[in-house]
Design a protein that fits this description.
This protein has 11 helices and 12 strands. 46% of the residues are buried. It is of the alpha/beta class. Bound molecules: NADP nicotinamide-adenine-dinucleotide phosphate. It holds the Pfam family Aldo_ket_red.
Length: 312
C-alpha cells in the first residue's frame, strides 16, 4: 500500500479510506474501465471497488496489469451477485478468473435479496437465507480467496438478523451515503458492532453540485463541492469510493480538505431541509412501486418511501 489514509478493519487488515468506484452506469467490459483503472493507479489510488454485476471485472484486471502496479499493493473489492447466493464459492472463483488474481481483499454480499436465475426475488425466509449465504462466504476466508468479507445494502434490521448467527462479523457494510442520505443511525450502529461503513455514491452522482450551502463551504476552501462531499465522508470515518472515468476528476477526488467541526455539523444536518432526505439511486425509482429488487422497504428494513424519499 502507498501512504494514503488507511483504516483498520475488525480483522486487523487495512483498507484505504478512498477508492475508485467501477459502476459505469451500464453493465459491461470496456476500454474506458481499463483506462480508468490505469489512470487511478498511476495517480496513487490503491483501492478498487467493482462487482460481478457490473460485468467489468476483466477490464479492471487488465487495467491493474497494464498499470504495472503490484497486485499486492492494491485493495480489490468485488461483490457476490444476488443470483449467486446459492453458489457462493463458484461465483467468487469466476470473479477471480476475470480479475486475474488469486484472491480479493474484500468480498461483499451485494444485496441481501437472493434472486433466482431469472431474476425473481425469493422471500427473506426462503433458502438460501442471508445466514446461509454468509456461512458460505465465511468459508472463503478460510480458503484465503477472500481476505475479508462484508455486506452491502444492509439495514440495521438485517444486520441484527445476520449477527444472530454470524461467526465472522462483517468487516464492512457498503451503503449509499452522502448528505441527502447520511445514514447517521446506521453509521453509529456499525461503529458499535465493529463494522466500517463504505459510502457508495459519495459525491451523490454529482447531483449536489448546485447546492448553495455546499457551494459556500467549497468556496471558502477554494475547493469543489465534490471535494467537500468526499472530505465530509472521510471526516466522519467512512470509506468513500467515488467513480470518475475522467482524468481531471479522478485527480480532484484525491485531493481532500479539512472541514471545521461547524462545517461538518452543517453538512450532517443538510438532509433536514425540506425535500432533501432522499436516495439518488435509480433502483429506488418511484416507477418500481415501493420495492427494491423484489423486497419491500419493510423487508429491507429501510425507512424509505416511494422514490427513495425518507419520510420526515
Ligand atoms: N453496493 C452497491 O449496491 C453500490 C451501488 C452504487 C454504487 N456502488 C459503488 O460506488 C461507486 C460510486 O458510486 P456512484 O458511481 O453511484 O456515484 P458517485 O461516485 O457519487 O458519482 C459518480 C458520478 O459523478 C461524476 N463525478 C465523479 N467525480 C466528480 C467530480 N469531482 N465532479 C463532478 N462530477 C463527478 C461521475 O462522472 P465522470 O465519470 O464523468 O467523472 C459520475 O457520473 C460505484 O462506482 C460503485 O463502485 C455500489
Amino acid at each position: 500500500m502507498n501512504d494514503a489514509l488507511l483504516y483498520k478493519l475488525n480483522n486487523g487488515l487495512s483498507i484505504p479510506a478512498l477508492g475508485v468506484g467501477c459502476w459505469m452506469g451500464q453493465v459491461g467490459e470496456s476500454d474506458q474501465v481499463r483506462q480508468m483503472i490505469v489512470w487511478a493507479l498511476e495517480l496513487g489510488y490503491r483501492h478498487i471497488d467493482t462487482a460481478s454485476n457490473y460485468g467489468n471485472e476483466e477490464s479492471v484486471g487488465k487495467g491493474l496489469r497494464d498499470s504495472g502496479v503490484d497486485r499486492a499493493e492494491v485493495f480489490i473489492t468485488t461483490k457476490l451477485a444476488s443470483e449467486d447466493h446459492g453458489r457462493v464459492s463458484a461465483a467468487l472463483d469466476e470473479s477471480l478468473v476475470k480479475l486475474g488474481t488469486s484472491y480479493v481483499d474484500l468480498f461483499l454480499m451485494h444485496w441481501p435479496q437472493a434472486l433466482t436465475k431469472t431474476g425473481e426475488a425469493l422471500p427473506p425466509d426462503a433458502s438460501p437465507t442471508i445466514a446461509e449465504t454468509w456461512r458460505e462466504m465465511e468459508i472463503l476466508v478460510e480458503t484465503g480467496k477472500a481476505k475479508s468479507i462484508g455486506v452491502s445494502n444492509f439495514s440495521i434490521k438485517l444486520l441484527d438478523k445476520l449477527l444472530e448467527s454470524a461467526r465472522i462479523i462483517p468487516a464492512i457494510n457498503q451503503v449509499e451515503a452522502h448528505p441527502c442520505l447520511p445514514q447517521h443511525s446506521l453509521l453509529e450502529y456499525c461503529r458499535h458492532k465493529g463494522l466500517l461503513l463504505t459510502a457508495y455514491s459519495p459525491v451523490a452522482k454529482n447531483k449536489l453540485s448546485g447546492n448553495d450551502v455546499l457551494g459556500e463551504i467549497a468556496a471558502k476552501h477554494n475547493a469543489t463541492v465534490a471535494q467537500v462531499l468526499l472530505s465530509w465522508g472521510i471526516g466522519r470515518s467512512t470509506i468513500v469510493i467515488p467513480k470518475s472515468a475522467n482524468l481531471e476528476r479522478l485527480k480532484e477526488n484525491l485531493t481532500l480538505i479539512s472541514l471545521s467541526p461547524e462545517e461538518m455539523r452543517i453538512i450532517n444536518e443538510l438532509h433536514k431541509e425540506e425535500g432533501m432526505h432522499h436516495s439518488v439511486c435509480g433502483f429506488h425509482s418511484a416507477a418500481l412501486g415501493g420495492s427494491c429488487f423484489g423486497w419491500t422497504y419493510e423487508q429491507l428494513g429501510w425507512e424509505m418511501a416511494l422514490g427513495g424519499v425518507v419520510p420526515r
